[in-house]
């Protein structure tokens, strides 16, 4: 059975846009994952640690036959393949960040994974690209993506040509 999952992508080190394109292609080539839709790219200010370069962010919707944890493992493996080193720094600079934002209408919370992502509602850099592909999607316990976006300040998040 296939589930639609929503994935956020971002990065701010190196040649980010081609890396995001390549990561999307790599995910689409994986068994059990098929990219259904992708957002525009957005230039966004850093979150948390603001003393770092701006990010480029996007979102994709995928159809997957993988379970939520197996999909998370595929995302983490893809990050590593593209040079991501998780050194424990939260909100720091990174070559590639892949976040499992939603997995169908599931609500999961364990030591490895929480979906829907618990901080979607506060992050314009996530909601803006997500609204490109899933504005009408209702995230369990959080609301409709388009409504969540309307409630945040997205003025500093700029679409790239």
Automatic annotation (TrEMBL):
7,8-dihydro-6-hydroxymethylpterin-pyrophosphokinase domain residues are 90-101
Is the keyword Transmembrane assigned to this protein? no
EC number per UniProt: 2.7.6.3
Enzyme class per UniProt: transferase
In terms of InterPro entries, this protein maps to: Hppk, Hppk_sf
According to UniProt, this protein's pathway is: Cofactor biosynthesis; tetrahydrofolate biosynthesis; 2-amino-4-hydroxy-6-hydroxymethyl-7,8-dihydropteridine diphosphate from 7,8-dihydroneopterin triphosphate: step 4/4
What sections of the protein cross the membrane?
Answer: none
What GO terms are given for molecular function?
A: 2-amino-4-hydroxy-6-hydroxymethyldihydropteridine diphosphokinase activity; ATP binding; kinase activity
Q: Read off the CDD domains from this record.
A: HPPK (cd00483)
Keywords linked to the UniProt accession: ATP-binding, Folate biosynthesis, Kinase, Nucleotide-binding, Transferase
What's an example Gene Ontology biological process for this entry?
tetrahydrofolate biosynthetic process
Task: Report the family membership.
Answer: Belongs to the HPPK family.
Outline what the protein does. Answer: Catalyzes the transfer of pyrophosphate from adenosine triphosphate (ATP) to 6-hydroxymethyl-7,8-dihydropterin, an enzymatic step in folate biosynthesis pathway.
Q: What is this protein called?
A: 2-amino-4-hydroxy-6-hydroxymethyldihydropteridine pyrophosphokinase
Q: Which organism is it from?
A: Luteibacter yeojuensis
């Amino acid at each position: 059975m296939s589930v639609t999952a929503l994935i956020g992508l971002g990065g701010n080190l190196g040649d980010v846009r081609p890396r995001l394109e390549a990561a999307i292609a790599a995910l689409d080539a994986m068994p059990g994952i098929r990219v259904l839709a992708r957002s525009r790219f957005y230039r966004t200010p850093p979150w948390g640690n603001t003393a770092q370069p701006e990010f480029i962010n996007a979102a994709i919707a995928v159809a997957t036959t993988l379970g939520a944890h197996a999909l998370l493992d595929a995302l983490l493996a893809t990050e590593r393949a593209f040079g991501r080193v998780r050194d424990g720094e939260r909100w720091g600079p990174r070559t590639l960040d892949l976040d499992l934002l939603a997995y169908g209408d599931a609500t999961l919370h364990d030591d490895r994974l929480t979906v829907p992502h618990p901080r979607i509602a506060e992050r314009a850099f996530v909601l803006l690209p997500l609204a490109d592909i899933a504005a009408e999607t209702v995230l369990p316990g959080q609301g409709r993506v388009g409504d969540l976006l309307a409630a945040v300040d997205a003025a500093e998040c700029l679409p790239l040509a």
